[in-house]
Amino acid sequence: MVSGAFLRRARGDAMGEAPGILVDFDAALEIVARHAEGLAAPAVEVVELLAGRGRVLGGEVKADRDQPPFDRSTRDGFAVRATDAGDAAELRVVGQVRAGERWVGDALEGGCAIEIMTGAPVPTGADAVVMVEHVARVGSVLRVEAGRIVRMGENVVPRGAEARAGEVVLGVGAVIGAAEIAVAAACGCSTLEVFQRPTVAIVATGDELVELRQLPGEVLGESQIWNSNSYGIAAMVEEAGGDALRMPVAPDEREALEAIILQARKADLLVLSGGVSMGEYDLVEEVLLGMGAEFFFTGVKMQPGKPVVFGRLPARGEAKEQYIFGLPGNPVSTQVTFHCFVEPLLRAMGGAGGSGPRFVQATLAEDVTGKAGLMRVLPARLTTDRVRPEVRLVGWQGSGDLAANARANCYAVLPPERTTFRAGDVITVLIR
Ligand code: AMP
Ligand code: MG
């Protein structure tokens, strides 16, 4: 078995050692993206329309007929011929058509108008709708307001303009939200084909960890802490479209850790927390290596999150090939590295296209100074109530500060080559 010291050297943490698989932040994103691209499409299942919310579409949704299925009026008003309905024109009202009805009379003739409601089919012969606000009606006499110009096609959406029968309105890989459910319903779909969710086994490591218990009032020993990471990771997994399987806490002990990892091999993806730093009892990489893992990176030049590990365990016996992430145990590092690296791969495993981390640009609200050398991904708050989105760092006590992380709603991404950022600078923000 290769020793932990070997891996620490490979990571380039030891003084003077050549960096092995310690990579730049952008390179790490790129490595994950490359693996995400190579994934096979997941299996498909059928669910009720509303149960599709938050899932990823596994089969196209097509328009069941032309949308709209007829030339549709978008306003309450009067169907007219544009050429004879302009400035102060006087027209004769010859009938009415409501939503859900169809005009069964003769085609509209010059000098005439048919009262029409929003959503009703425009009668043949008419090519525009004048809004009710722009006319005065006395009995069957309609006068268009002075100076009004009525254009052909005004307030009419032609049949098939939104989608032609059979046209794809939702593509495979779309994440299903309210907009997707609404358009699927408009196409008559009461069910949706969705991709099966990838399963994610979560293994928290650390002798100091205590599993949350059902008993109220449980008191911890002074040096013990609740295993919060399993829950934080499980929540991020579910939000990223996975099914979380929380495994028992693994102690910092080789055989027990390996036994729990073996149980976790049934999942599509394995996420570990803790045990990837420089300490004597940080055994995760060593144990994974002993199980035949290959590593794509074992450290990223970022802060927090530097010890993050990405690799793959080979197929063995019943177990399939399995991607693995070893996230640093410090809970904010855990969250940051999950959003940067685990989430894109997990979304891609679930069949969602274009799944990279979501970065936006925002204006820095205050000066920031810090150390150079590592990409910093710091808890921050983005406010969008101003014309341009503004971001400010959240005060924190370092990468164990979950309370600060909860006060944040994003992470400010500060590049390694600068130490000073000024209020008004435009910076990158990672949305979580
Ligand atoms: P490690 O990465 O194992 O060196 O852990 C770094 C820090 O994160 C230590 O202070 C740990 O106590 C803490 N930590 C590790 N795992 C967890 C966890 N599952 N929940 C909460 N804190 C943790
Ligand atoms: Mg630990």
Description:
The chain is of the alpha/beta class and 432 residues long. It has four domains: 4-42 and 197-349, 3-Layer(aba) Sandwich (Molybdenum Cofactor Biosythetic Enzyme, Chain A), CATH 3.40.980; 44-66 and 162-195, Molybdopterin biosynthesis moea protein, domain 2; 72-157, Molybdopterin biosynthesis moea protein, domain 3 (Molybdopterin biosynthesis moeA protein, domain 3, Beta Complex); 358-431, Beta-clip. The protein is 19% helix and 28% strand. The chain is built from eight helices and 30 strands. Strands 8-5-7-6-10-9 form a six-stranded mixed β-sheet, with no helix packed on it. It has a six-stranded mixed β-sheet with strand order 17-14-18-23-22-19, with helices on both faces. Strands 24-27-26-28-30 form a five-stranded mixed β-barrel. Helix 2 (25-37) runs parallel beside helix 7 (331-349) and helix 4 (229-239) runs parallel beside helix 7 (331-349). The protein is elongated and about 90 Å long. 40% of the residues are buried. The structure holds adenosine monophosphate (AMP) and magnesium ion. Magnesium ion binds at residues 205-206, 252, 274-275, 329.
Quick summary:
With 432 residues, the protein is α/β, with parallel strands linked by helices. It is 19% helix and 28% strand. It has a 6-stranded mixed sheet with strand order 8-5-7-6-10-9, with no helix packed on it. Strands 17-14-18-23-22-19 form a 6-stranded mixed sheet, with helices on both faces. It has a 5-stranded mixed beta barrel with strand order 24-27-26-28-30.
